[in-house]
Amino acid sequence: MPAARPARIPNQRDGSDDSMAAGTTVDHLTETYRAHYRSLLGLAALLLDDTASCEDVVQEAFIRVHSARKRVRDPEKTLAYLRQTVVNLSRSALRRRILGLKLLSKPMPDMASAEEGAYDQLERDALIKAMKGLQRRQREVLVLRYFADMTEAQVADTLGISLGSVKAYGSRGIAALRIAMEAPA
C-alpha cells in the first residue's frame, strides 16, 4: 500500500482557497472601506477639485486594492496601500486634465467664412470665363507659366516656341485678362 500523501496546504501563489490565502481578505477590505472611505475621499478632494472625480478615484483605488489583495501581505498596510493608490490615481486624473487643456487651448486655424468662400468662387468662375476668351497660345502660356509654375524657358520648351514668343503671348494674355476681369459681367 502506497504511503499516504500529506494533505495539500493551499498557498497564496496557487490561489486555490481565498479564505486561507495570505494577504488582505475581502472582509478586511470591506471593513477598511466602511471605516476609511470618507477620509480617502477627503484626501482625493485635497488633490482634485470636483466631487465626482474624487469619488471615481476612491472607488477605483478600492477596486485595484481588491484585485491585488493577495499581494498586500500585511492587512495593516491595506490603508497605506489605498492612500498611495488614491494619490497616484489623482495625479493621473490631473495629468489627463492638463493634457486636455493643452489640446483645447491651441487656437483653431483661421478658416474662411462662407461669404469669403462664395466671393472666391465667383472670382474663380470669372477668371475661368476670362481665360476661355483668350487666344489658344495665350491661354497655354499663362496656364503653364502661372498655374503649372514653370519658368519661361520651360514653357518655351514645352510648347516648342521661342522664349520671346512666350514673353509676348504672356504679356498680351495678361493684358486681355485685365480687360476681361474689369468689364462688368
From TrEMBL:
Chain segments carrying region Disordered: 1-22
Pfam families: Sigma70_r2 (PF04542), Sigma70_r4_2 (PF08281)
Every RNA polymerase sigma factor 70 region 4 type domain range: 125-177
Recorded family membership: Belongs to the sigma-70 factor family. ECF subfamily.
Keyword match DNA-binding: yes
Xref: Gene3D superfamilies: 1.10.1740.10, Winged helix-like DNA-binding domain superfamily/Winged helix DNA-binding domain (1.10.10.10)
InterPro entries from the UniProt entry: RNA_pol_sigma-70-like (IPR039425), RNA_pol_sigma-70_dom (IPR014284), RNA_pol_sigma-E_actinobac (IPR014325), RNA_pol_sigma70_r2 (IPR007627), RNA_pol_sigma70_r4_t2 (IPR013249), RNA_pol_sigma_r2 (IPR013325), RNA_pol_sigma_r3/r4-like (IPR013324), WH-like_DNA-bd_sf (IPR036388)
PANTHER family found in the cross-reference section: ECF RNA POLYMERASE SIGMA FACTOR SIGM (PTHR43133:SF50), RNA POLYMERASE ECF-TYPE SIGMA FACTO (PTHR43133)
Superkingdom of the organism of origin: Bacteria
Keywords, in A-Z order: DNA-binding, Sigma factor, Transcription, Transcription regulation
Protein name: SigE family RNA polymerase sigma factor
Domain RNA polymerase sigma-70 region: 33-97
